[in-house]
Amino acid sequence: MLPKLPREKLLDLYKTMLVMRRFEEALIRVTKSGISVGHFHVYIGQECTGAPALSLLGSRDTVFTTHRNHGHLLARGADPGKLMAEIFGKATGYNKGKGGTLHTTAGELGFLTTSAIVGGVIPLATGAAFAAKERKTRGASMCLFGDGALEEGVVHESFNLAALWSLPVVYLCENNSFGAPGQKAGEYSSSTIAARSLLSLATPYGIPAVSVDGTDAGAVHQAVQKALARARKGQGPVFIEAKTFRWPGSRPVWPELLTGETDLKRAWDLKAIPKQYADWHRKKDGVLRFTRELLKSRRATPEEILEMDREAQARNEQAVRFALDSPEPKPEAALEDVFA
Ligand SMILES: Cc1ncc(C[n+]2csc(CCOP(=O)(O)OP(=O)(O)O)c2C)c(N)n1
Question: Is 64:124 a contact under the CB 8 Å cutoff?
Fold first, then answer.
């Protein structure tokens, strides 16, 4: 389902998703060409969660996210060139190359920090919500994390305080384990979390919890809109589980695309779908799903879709160029911006 938005806004959301997808494809292509930028994680496949969720934030809101953060930053309007440069460790990056992929921070976009410590952002987002409440900013705090974070003890202290003090925070869990081998539909299974339902981890604290299909941009948009409205009215936190799919890559350290780079024609030309990974192209890839929904509702033609895609690819090619041509940080800058 498409979010209930006017056509122009829907197309803006789609363009953002295309930039998110093409950004990481370009990044993978660069690393495959032999240029090493170190270990990074990709958000490919989760665009229908991040793009609509983050499009709902305003300038008073804060965002906290994880090791899988590129898509989130781009969804909030990050400049692809500055983000690519940060991942490459260049002086022109968001944090002058000192944050890198795992800790990119962009205060101007509401990202007070991103953290690779699994579960680490949950208390920070809760603290930011406390600050917003104390300062009466009417802003909300959004916290994005994976299902793995829920095994951390600090999550429960955070949920408890957020509920006790009715803090304006939206906990958005991107459950990309859904569909793991041997897992039954709708059942959560993990070797590290005993709970069978992730929602059951929030409800004992009186936190309303809802599960949505994370490849359904309309469902995510609706759930996050409701949660933010509740938080901003001072009614406390909400927990949302977005069931989504991990990108189909094979190697965890050097991401590669087993399915190839995205071919949007697969949204309308079923013959173009290769048998292998047909499941991904037909059902799991949220960008293809959103494309099909745009076509079906006649909000865009195939030509318009391909044109938007060309623009997204060109923007990301420029971003790669900018990052490659940017200078390394100077050695004498190592101790600049160090506070502790
Ligand atoms: C506290 C902590 N423990 C372990 C790790 C190593 N680690 C990095 S990513 C990851 C998996 C995280 O899974 P999840 O939170 O579900 O996010 P996903 O990668 O699936 O998006 C782990 C265990 C870490 N970074 N921090």
Answer: yes
Q: Distance between CA atoms of 105 and 108, rounded to whole angstroms?
A: 9
68 CA distance to ligand 1 centroid (A)? 10
In the chain, the domains with their CATH numbers are: 7-264+278-326 (3.40.50.970)
**Tally of CB atoms within 10 A around 152:** 18
State residue 270's pLDDT score.
Answer: 81
Encoding tokens for residue 67? 């090791």
Find out whether the beta carbon of 210 lies less than 6 Å from any atom of ligand 1.
Answer: no
Low-confidence spans in the chain with pLDDT less than 70: 178-187, 250-253
DSSP state of 109: G
Give the closest residue to 133 by CA, choosing from 40, 256, 6, 235: 235
Distance 148 CA to ligand 1 centre (A): 6
The single residue listed with the structure tokens 């990481």 is 24
Q: At what angle do helices 47-55 and 286-296 cross, to 10 degrees?
A: 70
